[in-house]
Sequence to fold (549 residues):
Amino acid sequence: MDGHSSHLTAPVRSRSSQSPSPSHSASASATSSIHKRKLQPDDHALPFPPSFSDTRDGALTSNDDLESISVRGADSDSDDESEEVVDDEEEEYDNSMRNFTSSRLENTNAGGPPTARNTKIKAENSVKVEPADVSKDGNTNTNNSGAPVATGGNGSIPGIVVKEDTVKSIFTDNIQTSGAYSAREESLKREEEAGRLRFVCASNDGIDEHMVWLIGLKNIFARQLPNMPREYIVRLVMDRNHKSVMVVRRNLVVGGITYRPYLSQKFGEIAFCAITADEQVKGYGTRLMNHLKQHARDVDGLTHFLTYADNNAVGYFVKQGFTKEIYLERDRWHGYIKDYDGGILMECRIDPKLPFTDISTMIRRQRQAIDEKIRELSNCHIVYPGIDFQKKEAGIPKKTIKVEDIPGLREAGWTTEQYGHSRFKTVTLSTDATSHQKSLTAFMRSLIKAMHDHPDAWPFKEPVDARDVPDYYEIIKDPMDLKTMSKRVESEQYYVTFEMFVADVRRMFSNARTYNSPDTIYYKCSTRLEGHFSNKVQAGLQSGIKIQP
Ligand SMILES: CC(=O)SCCNC(=O)CCNC(=O)[C@H](O)C(C)(C)COP(=O)(O)OP(=O)(O)OC[C@H]1O[C@@H](n2cnc3c(N)ncnc32)[C@H](O)[C@@H]1OP(=O)(O)O
Fold:
């Protein structure tokens, strides 16, 4: 069959039910009922010689033979939907056939070297996994030894030592070595290296193992693409012009792609693509496509793939680099590929150089290169030790920390000239600032006194005693009282802005209203005292007290 003679209107592939297309009545009838699969006359043509007696190399060579195996063997798809799409007779798994199939496989592999033909085909068709030549450890970083370390050299702060170890561990710990795509690819690659997972390319070549896998793949397609007539799936999967790249895990097929390489045109047509239901969205589909691209480019010499993607699979194909725009010259593909109802023609150019089966290593190297470049240009990767606040009672720091002593601040380019932008000016105060702080402290002190002297202040004068109210600190996580605030005011360090003071006052009242119900004296006291506080603040502001610098 030449490329042009294969041109036909193929059945719709979609899982969703679709209305029959008037222009394709044969395919429409094929999709109208999954149990009433009708193919166009051409679809009855067998992709293999009809004679059962032709058993070259053990190849399955009749439709009956195929169907019998498909009924009985390689049931690797554990989809719940299987009952809907698989005939009852197929569900009656024939143990004797299973034994027969496995014994055939054992015979193939046991006792002596494989036949020359087997060896040759396997060598040709196996999709190779190229060993990565970088360490498996994604954290390997040649730049670490040369990393800048703030240990008292240029730009470092005297007295603050950033340990080299700390910086190194920060380097390696903080680098995100891979995104989700690479992580999935790397994990599957490791499975391959451990021999638990294989990506194999096979066609109807008569090798028993290949035939069993192809039947398994055919079953997956039948379940995952239920609107596609089963005979049509069998026909293409078993067509010797088609090849299938399959995901094989523990000798069971869990998915695959069947495609037809048009070698003279240097493009391939993806006919079917599916992963068994319970293994979807685990990265198999992506890795499968990567293996397919590598194989199609390196073995078949293809430059492009075309496919009619189901509407609900367009997203997947887009993520694999397919576009709805067809850039391939029309002459190269028109008339070769089959038209499908309900599908969107998509194209993917196969990059001539990309290491498709080892893209994760490439991405990791790129990330490392970018990361190293960033480190050359900036110090943002260095994380300095934090400030030891060591607060004493009432949250007041034991010692004043100068802004310029904050580790890393000067290395980040901070200068004392920028100090003017800071709201927190109490560290080194100018004359103006000193007098402002004094007037602020005096105002806060007067407000504390005004509250303290009020008849409703008694519940707020001291911290709540947990012995009196055992569950208080379970409910109130951020307590406040007038005594604590007074200490903070008198320290002249804590309330560097008036807003900080007001925040403490508000918290004291809101705590009271959180813990106590509205009918309690405490609740009422808090409301009245808060009103008194607000009046005092208003009066102070009206009398000209400056609380903002
Ligand atoms: C030509 C044709 O055969 S068209 C018909 C395609 N086949 C089907 O629709 C059958 C049912 N579906 C399947 O068998 C599978 O879901 C496949 C083959 C479509 C995808 O295989 P999966 O192993 O699930 O893909 P994988 O896990 O690698 O996912 C790759 C990305 O595609 C996304 N994706 C997977 N399936 C779909 C979808 N149907 N629509 C949109 N996005 C999808 C995944 O979320 C993931 O995205 P992320 O990288 O941002 O996380």
Remarks:
- Confidence is low (pLDDT under 50) at residues 1-9, 14-174, 422-428.
- Residues 274 and 280 are 9 Å apart (CA to CA).
- The two ends are 89 Å apart (CA to CA).
- The pocket of acetyl coenzyme *A is lined by residues 13, 181, 224-225, 270, 272-275, 280-286, 307, 309-310, 312-313, 315-316, 319 (CB under 6 Å).
